[in-house]
Design goal:
It is built from 14 helices and 15 strands. It starts with a helix and ends with a strand. With about 425 residues, the protein is an alpha/beta fold. The N terminus is likely disordered. Helix content is about 35%, strand content about 20%. Helix 6 links the parallel strand 8 and strand 9. It has an eight-stranded mixed beta sheet, with no helix packed on it. The longest helix is centred in the N-terminal third of the chain and has 17 residues. Bound molecules: zinc ion. The site of zinc ion has 5 residues, from loops. The site of zinc ion (ZN) has 5 residues, from loops.
Length: about 425
């Protein structure tokens, strides 16, 4: 085939373009690049538009490039939280039932706009929302258009689950109350699972969340029971995968986890009652665990100190079950199952999970990998987030000191860049947000 000279010239320009133009260069004193490789000293990260074009040894400055001097800092990929609910207020600070019944979807959208800004300031440049309404797609899109600052978002919309399950908004309230969105996730047959997945896709979901077992922070359902049938799970997973969407599953009991893993879910959220056999099966299938220790810590304290603020009937469940995931984490680590970082909160401190993972058995370097490489892989975006390397988004965080020695630093980042734009510098928000 003959190509016109004009097309050939354009192709040549495209090839040399990125290397030629680097408007920004970050001089990193130490780089932890998200690959699992040992830290590198004195590295230059070249950036053009929103992407990294090259990572080179030494401090070099291409002609015309603006230098960001992080030569006394440790630079890492932007953090990724794989389990958020971006429009949810912090449990124990707000009355859960009052919040649920008095805030409209529009109120939630504005709440979420505040919480995503906080997440970005904490160093989270990407996140996966696994349970919310139309406000979550709206917030995702507003961030993507540059209308509000926040992490890149992948959203699931309402979790799919059965009548009277963990995701049924009517649990424990006056059965006469109604809301147009309250049945969006209801699945009581395999056919309904197929339809709901397709409806979620139509409404803009990036992934699907299912609720195969009961949960803790909800009235009337038991976390130790499997509430979706194996066939409902299988059809939900098959339909989602056919549409290019991954499936996250909220599950507690070991038998239900094993059924969900065999149905093909991509991640087990919480997984609190898993056994060594469960983790071995997950490892064999390549299923991720997202332990979400943060939410248990927060709810346990709330149940102890402010039970009146929690959903009626849940403080006793919180006190009984919330300590279990921490106790089970060493078993998960020993099993070699893949683990990704997740907090299960909206408002609040998303970096808290680092300390909880490390206190309960994670090596600091592995905690960073859970929030970068592993999280990017679970989301299905490892080709563009979760690592400091060429062709990835210029999503960077930096701390002053060595986060592998002083792990508290992970909870106090000094510098945040997302897509080549600096949102935090010298420990303060920039004018940008
Ligand atoms: Zn959750």
């Amino acid at each position: 085939m003959r190509r016109s000279p004009w097309i050939s010239a354009l192709a040549a320009l495209a090839l040399i373009g990125p290397a030629a133009a680097s408007e920004l260069v970050v001089h990193a004193g130490t780089l932890i690049d998200g690959s699992g490789a040992p830290p590198q000293q004195r590295v230059s990260i070249l950036i053009s538009n929103d992407r990294i074009t090259a990572v080179v040894p030494g401090f070099s400055t291409p002609a015309g490039a603006q230098v960001i001097d992080l030569s006394r800092e440790t630079v890492m990929p932007g953090f990724i939280d794989c389990h958020v609910h971006i429009s949810s207020p912090l449990p124990g600070h707000t009355n859960s039932t009052e919040n649920w019944l008095t805030r409209s979807d529009l109120n939630r959208a504005f709440d979420g706009a505040v919480f995503v800004r906080q997440m970005l300031q904490q160093g989270f440049t990407s996140a996966r929302d696994v349970g919310g309404g139309d406000e979550t797609t709206a917030i995702r899109d507003a961030i993507a258009r540059g209308q509000i600052p926040g992490p890149r978002l992948w959203v699931s919309l309402e979790p799919l689950g059965p009548t009277a399950g963990h995701g049924d908004p009517r649990d424990g309230i006056d059965q006469g109350l109604m809301h147009p969105g309250w049945d969006n996730g209801r699945v009581d047959t395999p056919d309904e699972a197929r339809i709901r997945v397709r409806e979620h896709k139509r409404r803009g979901a990036d992934l699907i969340k299912i609720m195969p077992s009961g949960g803790i922070a909800s009235s009337g359902d038991a976390p130790n029971l499997q509430l979706m049938t194996n066939e409902e799970m299988r059809v939900a997973v098959e339909t989602a995968h056919a549409l290019g969407m991954k499936v996250a599953a909220h599950i507690y009991p070991a038998a239900a986890i094993e059924n969900a893993v065999r149905a093909g879910v991509d991640s087990v959220e919480h997984g609190s009652f898993a056994t060594a056999e469960t983790f071995a099966l997950m490892k064999a299938h390549g299923t991720y665990l997202v332990p979400t220790l943060t939410v248990y810590e927060i709810y346990y304290v709330a149940a102890r100190d402010h039970p009146e603020l929690l959903t009626p009937g849940t403080p006793a469940k919180e006190l009984a079950y919330d300590p279990l995931p921490k106790r089970n984490l060493p078993l998960a680590i020993r099993s070699g199952v893949k683990i990704a970082y997740g907090t299960d909160i909206g408002e609040g401190d998303h970096a808290m999970e680092f300390g909880l993972l490390i206190t309960n058995g994670f090596a600091p370097a592995d905690a960073i990998l859970a929030a970068t490489r592993n999280a990017a892989d679970l989301i299905g975006a490892a080709d563009r987030i979760g690592a400091v390397k060429a062709d990835h988004f210029a999503d960077l965080v930096a701390v002053t000191g060595d986060p592998l020695q002083d792990t508290n630093l992970l909870e106090h980042v000094d510098f945040v860049m997302k897509g080549g734009v600096v949102y935090r510098q010298n420990g303060q928000p920039t004018a940008q947000p």
